[in-house]
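In this section we walk through a basic example: taking a raw amino acid sequence and producing a predicted 3D structure, encoded as discrete structure tokens. The instruction is simple. Fold the sequence below.
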Amino acid sequence: MPPLIATMSKKILNIFCVLFLFGIHQFEAYGQQKLNRSGTQLPFKIYKTTTDMMSIDDIIKSDTLFASVENLTKKTHPDNVYWVKIDLTKELETLKKDSLWYLRSHHYDYASIFYVENGTLKEKTFGRFDSTLKTNSILYAPGIPFRTNSLIEKRFIYLKLQYVYSIQSTDFLKFYYSSNVTEQLKGNYYSWNDVKILIPKYLFTGICLIVFVLTISFFITSRKKEFLFYSLYVFWLFIYLNGDVFRVNNRFFGGFNVASYWFQQIAQVLINLCYVLFVCHYLMTQQEYPKLHRVLKAIAYALIAIVIMDTAFFYFDFFIGHIQIMNVQRIIMTLFGTGGMIYLILHAKNRLAYFIVCGSFSYMIGALGLLFLNKTTYMITGATLEITIFALGLAYKINQEQKEKLYFQRESFINNNKALRAQINPHFIFNSLGSIQQLILSNKKESAIQYLSKFSSLTRNLLENSIETTLVLSDEINLLKKYIELESLRFDNNLDYKIDIAKEIDPYTLEIPMLIVQPFVENAIIRGLIHKEGNDKQLTISFSKEDTCILCVVEDNGIGRAASIKRKSIYKNDQNSRGIEVTQKRLQLLAPLEKETVTIIDKVDRSGNPSGTMVVLKIPTNMVF
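The resulting token sequence is shown next.
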């Protein structure tokens, strides 16, 4: 091994060793810190009052008011104010090791800590609605700093707490203290248990973002209201369940305060409102489920009224009203959800109803898990399942609507094609009867009888196939042969014709539109060959394949278009053949993207004189009937 490479290898190995040992050291340090991430629990006593008129001086003087937390009622109330007295006597020796410590507890809506500074009692707010409170963690409330020399009577911490946004169990009233290092660890880093809590939140956020963008895009392009209300439904779900992940509420209202909390709480009502409106448009309840539609309409108005009332309750700090009206809203939606699912199961008119039932059931189970077990994970899981099921339901509905659209387009196309083809038959019959009349007037009775016999045979074939829109190429060729033989009687059988089929074409399986070639063959005979002098009257019809089209070339050695114009030929722009015009429309229906479906070429001889006409038809083979 060259010396330079050996030296570099040793250096790289040393770097890896250092990094490995450093990682082990950090892991051990983290493990030691992890053991005490929550801090040390503190003993306390509590005093509950319904008045906010007492000062800290009154509280300190009324020491007998405090009692054990076990003596409290088991549920909080928005009107209750809780004074807490924390005794740090047993922790004084530990507190002397550092001057700065942090008090940790549950989230409180309104909260204050009291301490001594320069011999004077001071108050510092730290509640949930204190917008000046900052923290890096999205899981934990920030620790409240206190110093050993700021303790009241050198051993007590007094707190004033109020829990207003819901009624909770008093079991959450627990207090801890921790060092500055632990506070930094908990505020800036997450344990594996924290990560397990955050993973579902971030996954749910990603799902909400993707679904919201897709559905709002569909709404912009399609203007279907079910996509609008579904996208709003997903948005409010994110705000209610996961708005704290990216601090959306804080960004809207400049921090976590009463307004930002109202925004999150009102989101749960807007979730239900958007859900109701989504169901109305998704199931088209006004047409399909009139009884259900009336119920949905009434619930929508009730939810709008709840939004207005709850906003007023927050404005006037009537928090018990907020709690009660939210409970009423939950009862309404639970009863409706249960009744609605049963109704749809019994009266479902299509599969769309089952998507609503399955999605609603998933969401209801998650909501009940959050309500009774107080675990957001259940709600996130249920909401994720519902979002997925509703998204599948929307995709299914789009697919069904597309199938219906294609079906109606197909029926419209077939009917248009039949109508256009039906216009050819009278034209063809009129010309044939005219030919028979001409033979009779010319006293060619035998030819007239033969013509009439062949005409009746051809007409019978046309009537037998009148329902069909396509024929296999072999049957179309048989009709052409009968028609040409019919017309050749007018020439005293002095007409030669030839029909060529390319080897790559199977005439017994390939389908083409019925009578798509006949008008051009008729044109070649009646306007080109019938007026030609002499016995050299040639008609050639050939079929070949080109990409997705069949090229049909109808070629004659008649008098050409120039002479035909003088005879008021049907090729003249103001006197176009009805059969040619109709056939061109049929070809345009069959191949709307094709610029030229019919090409007419004037043939000339070496002297530049007209020598006939060539018509090239492009007949698509990828037709949908």
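Looking at the output, two observations stand out. Residues 602 and 613 are 5 Å apart (CA to CA). The longest strand covers residues 610-620. In the next section we compare this with other chains.
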